[in-house]
Design goal:
2 domains; elongated
């Protein structure tokens, strides 16, 4: 009989879960904690709106490029031996142009143009002395600079190519135009004129670096072909090398001419008339949604209620008062 009782006893797995919340309990928790949800939503919205309104106004400056046509179509579809040339075909390198945009090579080229550095780091340039400011005043520093100043780092290094490279990596945006072979390169800046000047120089410098690299490669290949012609007597083979040499000579002439070599401008540089940041309404909507979600999570899954909210507010007020008293005491000691 005992065995039968054991067999017929309900299994624990099918018993109702006492920890599971029902919809009625969830709505009851939300009703009891609506003040917590409202307070968090208002706090999130206020903070988001404050930082959004305090953020600097940014405008987008951009230019659109696309690969240039091949300088020599025959070189793209060549059938000659790479062993003879020793290198790949000579064509403008689009990938090289794109890889240069955030590189130290491009930053080093732009660093040599003093006007670019002066435009980009205008706050650190002393026009009267014609030199970089290395000991700035405390009031002229940014928030990060003021923190460094308080920590004892009261000298500022003059901007160099590494500072420029960091700026390009942080602010230069590269995006492909949908359904085209075009690429848009943009900068969001508070100073559209400086951004226009910088992007124009970025495009020119990147094109020049690619063109100079291709020209150097072509010159070395021409030398290699001329050396081969001196040691080859077979007429057919010499004829092939002469044809290749003529193509390389044409490529050298093309690469020797300045202009848009690896990438050609389709549009810009130009600045959009409307600002891209800040967007107070978008920040406000995001903050309201985030405050509601976090408030619901705290109310439903954690024991957060009005009493805890009031206790937390009292602790915050006490903490602020203590900090004020500490600051006053330090001020009295200094005096």
């Amino acid at each position: 009989m005992q065995e039968n009782d054991v067999l017929h006893e309900p299994a624990a797995a099918v018993r109702p879960d006492e920890d599971r919340l029902t919809f009625a309990q969830i709505f009851r928790l939300i009703g009891n904690g609506w003040r917590v949800i409202l307070t968090l939503t208002i706090a999130f919205a206020a903070v988001a709106l404050f930082f959004s309104l305090m953020s600097p106004t940014l405008y987008r400056t951009y230019y659109v490029i696309m690969p240039t046509p091949a300088n020599n179509d025959a070189l793209r579809s060549n059938t000659f031996s790479f062993d003879v040339l020793g290198r790949q075909s000579l064509t403008p390198d689009w990938q090289m142009y794109m890889s240069l945009l955030n590189s130290s090579t491009l930053a080093g080229r732009l660093e040599k143009k003093t006007t670019v550095m002066q435009h980009l780091f205008a706050s650190q340039w002393d026009r009267e002395k014609g030199d970089w400011i290395t000991h700035p005043d405390f009031d002229s520093l940014s928030l990060k600079g003021k923190i460094r100043w308080l920590l004892g780092k009261r000298t500022v290094q003059a901007p160099d190519k590494f500072a420029l490279m960091g700026y390009l990596k942080t602010n230069l945006n590269v995006a492909t135009v949908p359904d085209t072979s075009q690429v848009m390169i943009s900068i969001d800046s508070t100073d559209p004129s400086s951004a226009l000047f910088l992007l124009a120089n970025v495009h020119q410098a990147a094109n020049d670096i690619v063109r100079e690299a291709e020209l150097s490669r072509a010159v070395s290949q021409r030398k290699h072909l001329l050396d081969e012609l001196q040691n080859i007597s077979v007429a057919d083979y010499r004829q092939t090398l002469m044809e290749i040499l003529s193509r390389v000579e044409a490529h050298i002439m093309t690469a020797s001419v300045g202009g848009q070599y690896a990438a050609m401008l389709v549009d810009g540089p130009v600045t959009l008339p409307t600002k891209v940041a800040p967007q107070p309404m978008a920040s406000l909507k995001f903050a309201v949604v985030g405050g509601i979600i976090i408030g619901l999570v705290l109310v439903v899954f954690f024991p957060v209620n009005d009493a805890l909210l009031l206790a937390g507010w009292r602790k915050l007020r006490a903490l602020v008062k203590n900090r004020r008293s500490v600051i006053r005491a330090l001020a009295l000691r200094r005096n």
